[in-house]
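@channel sequence for tomorrow's demo:
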Amino acid sequence: MNSLRQWLRSHKHWGLNLGVPAIFFALAYGVMPIATALTFDLDEGIELAKATLLNQGYDLYDPIWSDQPPLMTLLLAAWLKLFGNHIVAARLLILSFATGLISAFYQSLRLSVGTQFALLGTLALTLTFGFLRFSVSVMQGIPALALAMIAVFGLLHATHPQEKSHLLPTRLELLVSGLCFGLSVQIKLYTLLLLPACLFQLVWGTKTTHWRQAIQRQGISRIAVWLLGGVASFAALMLLNPGFSVTQLLGLHFNATTQAALQREPSWLILLMFLAQDLDATLLSGVGIWRVLHHKPQLPLFPLVWLATVLVGLANYQPIWDHYYPLVAVPVVWLAVYGASQAQFQFKQWRNLWHIASRWKVQRVEALATGFLVFAIALAPLKLAVLGVSNHLVLQESVQNVAVVQQIKALQPKTHWLFTDLPIVAFYTHLNVPPELAVFSTKRLKSGELSPQILIK
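structure tokens (generated this afternoon):
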């Protein structure tokens, strides 16, 4: 009981710790047309088709073709079996993961810059381009990133000099963090790009700067414990899926023919477009990077290493889809919060806008940070307006496709199968897509893996 009381005293902001994710969940549920949008992304149908077939006794990878790790399909199948084959149920599962992501992000920022700027950063992430849409879309990206973010918070908490948990020993905390990271990779492989940043945090998680001193102080055992958790969770799921196919998982993602067939704009150009989508956060992140590199404050370098690794990794990969953007947005917003905290004023000191104008003698970087922050605040209503327009377009498209769904429903008593490149329609009509064709994706078509001969069979 004494340990519990000490822990509660050290977490005075428990109301915010619960309130921030609850408010996000309510906001996303209220703003996004979860029940009325036919689909937010074509990949929703693919995920739902695989989970539905799995619940009917078909096995992943053979005969259900899949180029993704198994965990998301297993979780979604179990969720649908529990709550029924309804689109709202499926999207609420993803929203629950997104809420976990927001909670872990807020807690990580709180450790770095305090509560006020953590709240600002959480709001900024929520308003980034497409984040709310991805938070309710039945795809792997947000669940994988959520588990990775939980793993990151565990790392930061375990290595934070002033945030020692009284309930969870450091090594156990690191083990749980590693387990979460391994599960994240089992949902989507792109979170492996966070591995260098995690290892960096394990070594340089304290004030020690020299790498040899850091390793001696942290102990190689801490790194080993974290890696043990990650490898154990990853290997356990592999053993539970004896039909797992490395060829299906890696074949399309790293196949030169596939990448050439899907070559669009250069990857670096797409990444620049990502950064331009939320220009306010990108500008502030530049100030944040300057602050970390020049002032060397007691701020985790983790988001900078994360951003650098992701940009380098994705710059050498094709194709990059729009749902990769949260992988970039999270570290950008994190660094933007560093930049915002460089501003000369604090929100609690705001009396009126004239107070900002009167402080003309501030340092140039601080003035720049203040200007970028004002720019970001001014853009918030515009971002909400863009979200409203986007939702309206999604609903308009849904109305057009509902007629098709109704026509197919009328034929449902006559068949159990539906051949379609839009498996979301099969989900709504409670028909099955052939397991080999559940993943009817552009990547699979362009690579030649899904050939006319396979379609004829």
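heads up for whoever presents: The chain has 23 helices and no strands.
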